[in-house]
Design brief:
By secondary structure, this protein is of the alpha/beta class. The chain has a five-stranded mixed sheet, sandwiched between helices.
Length: 117
RNA sequence: GGACUUCAUUAUAUGACCGCGGGGCUGGAAACAGCCAUGAGGAAAGUCCGAGCAUCACAGAGCAGGAUAGCUGAUAACGUCAGCCGAGGGCGACCUUAGGGCUAGUGCAACAGAGAUAUACCGCAGCUUCAUGCUGUAAGGGUGGAAAGGCGAGGUAAGAGCUCACCGGAUCGCAGGUGACUGCGAUGCCAUGUAAACCCUAUCCGAUGCAACACCGAUUGGUGCGGAGGUCAACGCGUCUGCUCGGCGCGCUUCGUUGAAAGGUGGCUUGAGCGCAGCGGCGACGCUGCGCCUAGAUAGAUGGUCAUACGCGACAGAACUCGGCUUACCGAUGGAGUCCCUGU
RNA sequence: GUGGGUAUGGCUUAGUUGGUUAAAGCGUCGGAUUGUGGUCCCGAAGAUCGUGGGUUCGACUCCCACUACCCACC
């Protein structure tokens, strides 16, 4: 996958994660914690963290899927609004697997867009 | 009708739209786009056993260490499973069972008790004495988890397997059974418990694990580390700082070292496979025939929204692959069987 | 994937060749001292020894299974 594609890139490096935890702007809700930072490039990047505290493998998988789905809906809205591109890291919390993706989507719209613009 | 026992099966379903993984087809130089079917479990879990597979080691034998422990069978193998035997529980269907050896040796057994692996405190009886002492005995008392098998009768000075019947255990013989063992008879009462204490006996075990391992690619060069140089002119990051300026370091060049560790591909899913039928076997299971192909990711694919139905959906997510075991779990359905109550 | 360890009063630790009663410090409570509080002194309460089975006459200790936490290696 290159920067020319429409989709986002998955953050894999531990260096990128720790950099975002240090330098990123944090947005806290009851469903997730989000770290954002502006980046140069043509697409957004996404990383999801589901720690041991979230629960067993099923719960961790579910929270990862929900966040990814919400972000899939959220991303085109973001691209229309601004020309800037960002790195995102979402950290799941213990309540995340019981929620619906629409709920997380609305939380993203409310909290993140207002913060970035 | 109630109370159970046991063996299986199943684990929300259907449709629409959007999205993900690998696969196939079409278009395209490629990037990619479109279409098609397909995509988590009974435990995928815990990692407690046993194998396959791979690499290394290995003439043969033994020691050490570990595992297992009724018998017969099943199996690739097992600590698993089936049937049976013994023991225990339940009125019963049925369930549970680490179930070799203390007569190979060593160790341990607190407190209590007279005495704990050998004894005589209170007793009982005989002899004797002022008091008491000596001898015999182990029925009774009390202690304890355990006191020379239990109970009754005979017997006796009082007693005792001293003798006898029954029960229990041991040894020997005979019969039945592949065998564990069971039945009968004779002898005859000889010594507690603990080997999930050391240990002994029998059987088994080479080590490491798919991050194994194999291949690709090589000085025109990859990874990490270190030295020297360069430049902050420009840009980014880090650091000094609350901020700005500025400095230093990295990204640049070069030298030395590291020498496949890094990256990619394979391993990676057709297998002791699954389903159905027939045959053999009490059964675990085996044989034959027909049919089927059913995840293969690599920061890790199954999700979302809407609608309908009901009982409103538990435990839970493949990571090389199988056979078990163990643990978690809302329920639903079916087969077989037992006991009790009522009616005919 | 492989291997190892820990769990004991509210907290931090002792204790296990199996033997009656599980020890200590801090903390808590009560008393004494002080004009009051602290320090000091005296006393008390507080533990199903992580959970569930088993072996044994008897288990914190031995064996098995499970739960939670921690660590190491590739």
């Amino acid at each position: 996958m290159s920067d020319f594609s429409k989709k986002y890139i998955v953050i894999k490096n531990n260096r990128d994660f720790s950099f975002l935890f240090k330098k990123g702007e944090s947005i806290v809700t009851f469903a997730f914690v989000c770290y954002v930072r502006e980046r140069r490039g043509r697409c957004n990047r996404l990383g999801i963290v589901t720690g041991k505290k979230v629960g067993n493998a099923v719960k961790r998988n579910r929270s990862r899927r929900i966040i990814r789905e919400a972000f899939r809906l959220f991303e085109p809205v973001l691209k229309e609004k601004t020309q800037k591109r960002y790195d995102f890291v979402f950290v799941a919390r213990s309540k995340t697997p019981e929620l619906k993706s629409t709920k997380i989507y609305s939380l993203m719209m409310k909290n993140i867009l207002s913060k970035l613009s």
